[in-house]
């Protein structure tokens, strides 16, 4: 059987905790489902439910790894931030790091945001 991506996508973004299908909402913005969306969700096959489960497992693994990375960044930067004013940009903290800690920090940042959106070397923030 063909797995309908629109069904999987819809099911991945529904908050079903409020009760039955009449109370289901979009997780992102809290909007109630339209009648068409509810009908589509209720037409899901066993294979589509399995695809949603597989996606949820991968998403959980991704977020677990991301949490571990941010926890490690906190550990790496804690001692270097000591004595700096609150709100100091990451660049000031990284500038104080020794070579091994800096290398690990940069490796983690490259993994988290390869485009530099979280921290740009020399950018200060």
Task: Give short descriptive properties of this protein.
single chain, 125 residues, mainly alpha, two-stranded antiparallel sheet, 2 strands
Q: Given the C-alpha coordinates, what overall shape results?
A: elongated
Helical stretch tally: 5
- Compressed to H and E, one letter per element, the order equals HEEHHHH
Strand content: under 5%
How is the main sheet built? 2 strands, antiparallel
Q: How many domain modules?
A: 2
Task: Describe the model.
The structure is a single chain. By secondary structure, this protein is mainly α. The protein has two domains: 1-44, no CATH class; 62-125, no CATH class. It is 58% helix and 3% strand. The chain is built from five helices and two strands, in the order H-E-E-H-H-H-H. Helix 1 crosses helix 3. The longest helix is centred in the middle third of the chain and has 36 residues, at 46-81. The chain is elongated, with a radius of gyration of 21 Å. The termini are far apart.
Q: What would you say about this model in short?
A:
This protein has helices at 5-12, 35-42, 46-81, 90-96, 99-112, and strands at residues 14-15, 25-26.
List the helices and strands and how they pair.
Layout: H1 5-12, E1 14-15, E2 25-26, H2 35-42, H3 46-81, H4 90-96, H5 99-112
Antiparallel strand pairs: 1-2
Helix pairs in contact: 1-3, 3-5
């Amino acid at each position: 059987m063909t797995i309908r991506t629109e069904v999987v996508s819809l099911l991945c973004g529904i908050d079903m905790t409020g009760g039955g299908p009449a109370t289901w909402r979009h997780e992102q913005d809290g909007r109630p489902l339209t009648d068409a969306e509810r009908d589509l969700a209720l037409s899901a096959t066993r294979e589509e439910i399995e695809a949603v489960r597989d996606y949820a497992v991968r998403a959980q693994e991704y977020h677990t790894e991301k949490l571990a990375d941010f926890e490690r960044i906190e550990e790496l930067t804690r001692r270097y931030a000591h004595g700096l004013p609150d709100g100091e940009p990451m660049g000031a903290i990284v500038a104080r790091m020794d070579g091994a800690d800096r290398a690990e920090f940069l490796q983690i940042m490259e993994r988290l945001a390869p485009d530099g959106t979280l921290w740009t070397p020399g950018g200060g923030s």
